[in-house]
What does this fold into?
Amino acid sequence: MPELPEVEVVRAGLAPAVVGAQITAVSVFDERALTRHAQGAADFAGRLEGAQVVAAVRRGKFLWLPVQGERDALIAHLGMSGQMLLRAPDAAPERHERVRLHIRHPRHGELAVVFADQRTFGSLAVDELLDTPDHAAGGFGSPLPRIPSQVAHIARDALDPAFDDGGFFAAVRRRASGIKRILLDQGLISGIGNIYADESLWAARIHPETEGRALSRPALARLLGEVRLVLEKALAEGGTSFDAQYVNVNGQAGYFAHSLNAYGRTGEECPRCAGPIRREAFMNRSSHYCPRCQRRRQGQRGSL
DNA sequence: GGAATAACCTGGATGC
DNA sequence: TGCATCCAGGTTATTC
It folds into this structure.
């Protein structure tokens, strides 16, 4: 599923092809891909056609392309199965293709940017850019201190140089929720989904139901360090692909699935202690952890 | 404001 | 072979 490393691979793949390009035409095949754009397909296309892309930026799992004038941006969230693919302008339609942008780049010529999405949880929109409250860059990929209004409530991610470690520790220690639920709260720390939450907690040897307020600052510092290591390693390996749901802009899969220690390894030996990895229901999804390495302690919630 | 949960959605896997 | 059910999970709205 597209989490921070997967979205960053997409951003980095798109950037050379779209920055400096002019959007010449927009085709919307399925308006469900525009659930974030309330004004509809005609308005969406009208605001993009003729615009020139000036950057490709990412915060957490959100991606956006500011256009010339830096007042608006095309924003994209891949949801669970969204793909941004670079194709020849006359390429045959992709399976589950929802939107196609035709672009003209001064060096690369005519190209198509295809948004395909099987489960339709992803969406695109044209949104206004606001100043960032801290005057730091809105996200990775541009120094511009601006952020789309729909992304303004999303916290900085753990790889962002402007991420406030101390503020994060303090916010976690005020919460009674389990630490996994906190890691998935994009308003507190962005970019982490189910896979990297499980992997980071396994690496830090913390039980996923440990209450935030029960974790010491050193334990949280260790966890944040592991979050960063896991994200950086996944990024270096091109992200996690279990099937065709996540691919880069050229349709290629990532390799980090081979490096997972807990997620998706139910019943297999823990790489650290050889105990069996356990899977349990959590928030309408699953948690994977090692009950031997990630022991329950006092101050943990009841369900896992 | 924090916490918890349901709904949205498609297709592959599984069971009968 | 065909049908029904389960499962995957990010975000948002709703409720408490």
In short: Chain A has two domains: 4-148, 165-289. Helices of chain A lie at 4-18, 41-48, 165-172, 179-183, 194-204, 217-236. The radius of gyration of chain A is 20 Å.
